[in-house]
Amino acid sequence: MKAKRIMSYDQMLVKGCYVNKKKIGIEDQLKEMPKKKQKVNEEEESQGSETVTCTSHGLISVIGRRRVMEDAVTASVGEIEGYDFYAVYDGHGGAVVATTCRDRLHRLLAKEVHERTRRGKELDWEKVMTACFAKMDEEVSGEGSDQQREAKDVVIRTMGSTAVVVLVGKQELVVANCGDSRAVLCRGGTAVALSRDHKPDRPDEMERVEAAGGRIVNWDGSRVLGVLATSRSIGDQYLKPYVISKPEVSVIERTKSDTFIVLASDGLWDVVSNEIACEVVKRYLDGQIKMRFSEGCSGGDRAAEAAAMLAELAMARGSTDNISVIVVELRR
Q1: Tens digits of per-residue pLDDT, 117-164?
Q2: Are 235 and 160 in contact (CB under 8 A)?
Q3: What's phi and psi for 134, nearest 5 deg?
Q4: Considering the domain 2-196+250-329, what is its CATH architecture?
Q5: Are the CB atoms for 38 and 188 separated by under 8 Å?
Q6: Domains of the chain: which residue ranges?
Q7: pTM of the full structure
Q8: 97, 110, 123, 237: least surrounded by Cβ within 10 Å?
């Protein structure tokens, strides 16, 4: 599988969308193009999903209308035996935690998987992911050594990041989520949420926070102690034990009707639904939506172009946040 290029914000902005040689926006295209029922090619249906983990991936991360960039993304192919690693991190209070997660979490996971496999232990993904997220939380909190503890200051203590991780294996998808970034699977033409957002007003999250002695305050939306708009994150030491780094983990068996996955920060999901996001990507991959300068991109850029279209759509719908999107094609 080939990794795809990352589009810059400027590259994304110069791309327009055309239907019948008339420049129109993505919203217009969604209205103008007739919906088609998905047809599964019999030859593709007969091909076992066990042949490859995925066919391609593309990603984009743009500052949007924010003054600073706090998002980060990772696509690591082949580092974890049998799996490709994809993750989106949405930082807050600064970019330090998100960028540290970008550089370190997949390596911590690769090491954890290798050590457990070497010892002949079965991979309990909930235990593996929980252990790695805890180690990542310790690293960004400066709890690993005396030197790290001395380096920890008030600024770092108030920084944090969400993390949504998808491992793509030949037979299964492993999803770990901490925060309100999200992963969505297109299965048989239908959007299937792979993760659940950790929002402070989610009943079970509110109960957990209050049981720990915290409060959910409605201040420009529900927030933990009136401060943080997500109830789980990596970092945010000043809000513990109310905000925790433990991820929710799920393992989903792959099917032949799985076509692609979209991972994104809430800069996309706040303004674009799961269903619309999948519809945009599906129509682009099916050739129903075209980009103005698509002739300048090779066919291998399909996933990157699809990710860029989602970022453009989020901007058009008024997203005020950083926007990061990864599109992973699971079959051709």
Answers
A1: 999 888 999 999 999 999 999 999 875 444 444 545 656 889 999 999
A2: yes
A3: -65, -40
A4: 4-Layer Sandwich (3.60)
A5: yes
A6: 2-196+250-329
A7: 0.82
A8: 123
